[in-house]
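Quick start: read one record
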Amino acid sequence: MTAEHDNDKSIAVPATARRLPAWLKRRIPASARIAEVAGLLSELSLATVCDGANCPNRAECYAAGTATFMILGRHCTRNCRFCAVKQGEVAPPSPDECEAVAEAAGRLSLRHVVITSVTRDDLPDGGAEQFARTILAVRRRLPAATIEVLTPDFQGSHPAVDTVLAAGPDVFNHNVETVPRLYPAVRPQADYRQSLDLLAHAHSLAVARKMTLRTKSGLMVGLGETSDEVRQVMCDLRGVGCDILTIGQYLSPSRDHIPVASFIHPTQFDAWQAEALAMGFAAAAAGPFVRSSYHAESVLRDCRR
């Protein structure tokens, strides 16, 4: 499996290869803040996507005193082949979780709070009400903070999106993750068009209600996609009014997950970012270590220029 990209510096990698290119190697920051943040999350029994998804930016974000909260438990009802979040027995949403997220955000003095979740297909609303309660709890604790939600697809439910948006987040993020051709291999329980429809509905609702909401989506590269396919996803997202785009390098969490097909050179990410801005995205972040919530506050700030 190989990827075809415009820049000759993209590197095709055999599925068995484990050696990272130089641009994907960096020092892990040494900071007492890392242990402080981890301790706070443990004290409040909170999960983060930083830990659950084995994010390569975890140490950097914890050292900066921030984290992306993951609500609705630690186990997912889906089994996407790219994701490190574990499947397992799920429990009813915790009634204490919303206030715990608000408490952690307050104690960390966050100016921008990012809330995501596992996918909960077992719940009638997919967990939308828990998102709404968490947004409202954070808003009470930190009225000046901006709030970003990164939601699952809610199985395409518009009422679930309406529930989340009624709580007043500043950013509604839902990731398409990859190009449509690769969905059967990468996201077999998801649907590309359904994800686009969800973003379109959020955008339309925001326009109709004159909300200041920004919509956002992202994808991983290095899974075997072509540059033309990446551009088509970018066009599709702009076509449904998506404001913010993120593109990052896929890194396989383990040998049990889908392997990396190629490591993309930073110059290709730069080209995609420039192209996204030229297409009309209000903000775009593309790079080897970019993830949905990576530097999310500064990316949102870029929209306001």
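The beta strands are 11-12, 47-48, 68-71, 112-117, 146-150, 171-173, 214-221, 244-249, 262-263, 283-287.
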